[in-house]
Amino acid sequence: MTRWFAAPLALLLALPLPACARPKAAASPDADPALWVVKDRDTTIYLFGTIHVLRPGLSWFDEAVKTAFDRSQTLVLEMVEPDAQTQQRVVASKAFAPAGTPLTEQLPPNYRPAFQKAMADGGLPPAAYDRMRPWFAAITLSLLPVQKLGYDPANGPEKVLSDAARQAGKPIVGLETFEGQLGIFDAISQPAQVRLLESTLDELPTADTTFRKLVDAWAAGNPDGVASEMNDSLKDSPEVAQALLVNRNRKWAAWIAERMKRPGTVFIAVGAGHLAGTQSVQQQLGAYRLKAVRVRY
User: Fold this and answer.
1) Beta carbons within 10 angstroms of residue 58's beta carbon
2) What is residue 77's three-state secondary structure?
């Protein structure tokens, strides 16, 4: 199960990553990621799927995406990044167990050597990772190879859009909170968390290839490709899929339906996996008799 692309942005912001894991990358070609719009007589809401980490040089904030953003009065993200002190406090309370069985011993014996090696390769000592909750270790592990390829939250759409919104004086609203995002993972059952970590270890050898395919599908505006690389990998863990995708998509669709009752133009940017597949936000909007139309450009 590939998980790192479905991880909430909070996790990407919370992880301290070594500077050596951020090499410069060659400029990438133009990208035309998918964009949708929901509108009525006096309200327009754009839906834009993001990849939380990108290499520098990929050109996507232009054409229809930039036009839609410029027309919007408000930017809505999965969550608004809190200050560093708040991040550290929440991560310490949610992502680490103060006592109990070391994480290495929670894994089946056949997974322990690979886990210890992967964490050591990422520069993390046993004293740090053995106190991690399984879900946080899984996210940490899945991000390390992606970061080594040069993908960074600093180049991600959330950062670019937030900077542009602040410069333009647009308010930024979060659909969730930092603590709430981490709480989604923390509420997953212990067996499902351990299985999540096991599956992450299984997929580490092909992480670079899988993530490249995901970014290529996103850049080509191919939501079916995004769903194939991202959401389909959640099928063998219904509990995780329900927590990460389905429940959140339903809540966000309800938020959109409520926001449609007031006039104005809003630009919503959330992880691309939420706007792809059979349980997408667009599909959930059907319960409110709302239709998201793809913006062609």
Assistant:
1) 20
2) strand
- Torsion sign (Cα): 186, 187, 188, 191: positive
Q: How far apart are alpha carbons 25 and 19 in whole angstroms?
A: 14
Report the side by side order of strands in the sheet with 43-50.
172-176, 74-79, 264-271, 43-50, 35-39, 293-294
Helices (H), 5-54: 9-14
pLDDT in the model for residue 123: 86
Instruction: Provide the pLDDT confidence category of residue 34 given band limits of 50, 70 and 90.
Output: very high
- Mean pLDDT, rounded, for 187-191: 95
Q: DSSP letter string over 271-291?
A: EGGGGSSTT-HHHHGGGGT--
Instruction: Specify the pLDDT at position 10.
Output: 55
pLDDT band (50, 70, 90) for residue 19: very low
Both tokens of residue 152?
């960074």
66's CB contacts (< 8 A; 6+ apart) are none
Pairwise CA distance, residues 143 & 160, whole Å = 20
The helix-helix angle for 134-148 and 178-186 (nearest 10°) equals: 110
Burial class (CB in 10 A: 0-12, 13-18, 19+), 183: middle
Distances in Å between the alpha carbon of 71 and those of 204, 224, 274? 41, 28, 23
CA-CA distance, 167 to 218, in Å (whole number)?
26
DSSP conformational letter for 3: -
Strands in the chain per DSSP E: 35-39, 43-50, 74-79, 172-176, 264-271, 293-294
Q: Where are the beta strands (DSSP E) in 93-216?
A: 172-176
Distances (CA, A) of 106 to 136, 191, 232, 269: 14, 10, 27, 37
